[in-house]
Every structure is written in structure tokens, then in C-alpha cells.
Amino acid sequence: MMSQEMNDQITRVGPGAPAGAVLRHYWQPAALSDELMGARPVVPVTLLGEELVLFRDEGGTLGLIGRHCPHRGADLAYGRLEDNGLRCPFHGWHFDCSGQCVEQPGEPEGSRMHENIRAVSYPVREMNGIIWAYMGPGDPPQFADFDCFRAPESHVFAFKGLWECNWLQAMEVGIDPAHASFLHRFLQDEDPADSYGKQFRDSAGNTQIPMTKLLRDYPRPDITVDETDYGLKLTALRHLDDGRTHVRVTNQIFPQAICIPMSREMTITQWHVPVDDETCYWYSMFTSFGAPVDKAKMRDQRLEEHRLPDYAPLKNARNNYGYDAEEQGKLTYTGMGLDINVHDQWAVESMGRIQDRRFEHLGKTDVGIVKYRRMLRAAIAAVEAGDASGLKMQNGGTEAIRGPLSNDAIAPDDNWVAASEAADLERRGQCSWDASV
Ligand code: FES
Ligand SMILES: [Fe+2]
């Protein structure tokens, strides 16, 4: 049983909070590139409980600085984007992309006061549709060579969505391979040919069995969890009646991402990013090993379910997630429609803003969650002791971290490790970009 103190320790993220200190050692998704595509590329960003503003100046340089003007606190998200920086509309103080105040037009001529004024600012980097921020101490770590970063921009589509709960319970649904047989159960199977851009709608491995049927018919997976240099590798085995084994490999990427198969063509790498203790965004990078991603189609599919500018889902607690008792009887396990994102959203939001883990009872299938929390607590202890060098992907060498293998495969016999690796290598071998591992 978990104490309140430990639950607070592993969930809270504001400045000075233990889990927040661990997350600050890693690049965090701050915004989608899409959000800066308008005529005025300025967007407010709340990240790890800190209020910031992200902008792109006329020269294309990105800046991520504190949202409240260092003069008297007005909101720089309403700033004038001009002169290669952001100018506060209150008294005209002007800040460059690094947060340095470069002009105070109302102060006496010749005043050098601005030289000592600096807004909070963080390094940013744009990669494959996401703008990343580093809010931690020292130099930012290198990015690992994951598929979602190595693939060309044409083969990666990024999107995000708001969930009204703590980041940890959002992440934990992604390292729980058992729930797919229940939460995402469809009582009828769709034609896998209509599966583009959707999760669990393809056929399983190299079979004609729809994933929906396989998950429904085999609800008791054998789950093993192995620690890796990037986090955890989760293997879920479903032993079919005909002697074959379905192998599904998913991953936890420390500290707060998962990498899972979406279809035979694509994987999803998804970060669960705290806005504050009680709200988070999922940021997904859909990476194709086959054809370039049809971004317009995938964006339209998802914009039908989300409102802008905050990417809040249209189905939510205020409208009971679209719950329909008749549908629950006939078509889906949840009665909340066919979009599996809504199912996950209901599961994690309905726990309460911060799940009260004092009252949970973990079973055998929760092994991924147990191992992850152990890893997180060890990282918290290391950071508190002042030595983060042992944390995953903090000490260079990240260019050697590739993949990770993330797929569904069918093994004809009990040699499922070989079958899973062979399916992965086959896909990588046929890929138009360098997906070698
Ligand atoms: S509050 Fe921003 S310039 Fe005065
Ligand atoms: Fe799920």
C-alpha cells in the first residue's frame, strides 16, 4: 500500500518537487510546430507548473521565456512580436529570444538598467513537428536516436491532446498491456482495410485475424518486463488455440514516454507532459516505416475530436464522454465510441485528478507499473542526492540507442523472441529511410 507522502513524491512536478526535478533533466514537448504556423507565432505554454510564452521571431529563431513581464508582471502572451523579440504592451520593454531585456523605451535616455533584466528562459529545439524545451540544470542531454527522431519529417506526424489528470496515471495506462483486451474491446470487427490512422484496427502480425478479435478472444496475456538502457521493454504474449503465439512488444521510455505499435506500418511514441500537477498533454509522434504519413488525413481525423487552440477533447467528463448504454451492450466495452483515445482518457481522468494510490490493489498484470515506479523512485533519490549521472540517457552514448523494437508478431512456435525480432528487422529492411538497428 502506498502512503500519501510517496504518492505526492512520484506525481507532483512544480519547481522543487521531486518527480518534477527528474522530468526537468529531460527535453519536454512544449508545443506542436502546428501551433506556430499562424500569422502571429506566439503561444502561451504552461509546462511543469511554470507559465511561459513560446514565440518565433522574424528571423525564425524560437524563444521560450517567462510569461509574466519582469517589469510588473503583465502577460507577455499578448506581446508585440517585433524587432526580433517580444515587446510588452504595458510599458514597451523588449525581450529577445534568450529572455534578455534589450530596451526600456520609457526609461530615461541612456539608462542601462535593461542590461540587468532577464526573463526566465529555456533552451528550445524543434524536431519532427514538436518544439522541445529543456528546463533542467546544466547542459541539455542529447536526444536518443529513436525512430521518431531519425525518420524524415515526411514520415512523422505529431499531434497532442489535453487530459484532465496527473501525468503519471496518464503514462501508466501505456505500460499496462492487459487493459487493451477490455477497455478497447470491440464486440464487432471492422474491415482492417479501413484502419488507416487508427489504433488496434489492423490485422494482427502477418495473419488475417483482426487485432480487435485477438484482443477479445485472449484476455489473459503473459507479461514480462525487462529493464533497458532507455527504460522498460514490455512483452505481452497471447497463446492462441492453434499453438501459435501473438507477441506484442511495447516500451516505456524514461521518464514519461511510451513507444507502442499502432499498425503494421506505424508506431506511436507518446510523451505524457505535465501542464501542472492536475493536467497533462499527450504528445504523439506517429512514425511510418512504409509510405509517407498522410498528415492531412491524420490531422483531420483528430481535429474532429478536439477543439483548438487548447487541443481539449470534445468528449470529456462534462458530457459523460458520450457514454451510450445501448452501444455498451452491443458494440464497445465502454459505450464511448470507437476512438480508443477517449477510452484511455476516461480511464485515467475518472481516477480523479491525482489518483489516490493509497487505495489501489496492483495485480500480476501491473508488473510494468510496479517496475516503472521503482525506477522513478530510484531516479528521484539520485537527483535528491545531487547525482543525476546514473539516470537513463543522461550521460552521452544516446546515439547508440535506437528503435525501440515495437511491434505485433505471430510466432509459429514457442520461439517468440526470434519471431518478434525477425518481424521488426523485416519492416526495417524495407523502410525507405535508415531504420537500421
Ligand atoms: S509590465 Fe511589462 S513593460 Fe511594464
Ligand atoms: Fe489504452
Gist of the model:
The chain is an alpha+beta fold and 437 residues long. It is 20% helix and 26% strand. It has ten helices and 22 strands.
- What's the oligomerization state? single chain
Which residues sit in consecutive blocks of at least 5 with pLDDT less than 50? none
| Structural class assignment | alpha+beta
What's the structural domain tally?
2
CATH fold field value of the largest domain: Naphthalene 1,2-dioxygenase Alpha Subunit, Chain A, domain 1
Q: What is the top-level CATH class of the largest domain?
A: Alpha Beta
Distance between the termini: 41 Å
* Shape annotation: globular
CATH architecture of the largest domain: Alpha-Beta Complex
Helix content: 10-25%
- Quote the beta fraction: 25-35%
Number-wise, the strands total 22
Residue-averaged pLDDT: 95
Count of DSSP H/I helices: 10
Protein name: Aromatic ring-hydroxylating dioxygenase subunit alpha
Domain Rieske: 27-133
GO molecular function: 2 iron, 2 sulfur cluster binding; dioxygenase activity; metal ion binding
Keywords: 2Fe-2S, Dioxygenase, Iron, Iron-sulfur, Metal-binding, Oxidoreductase
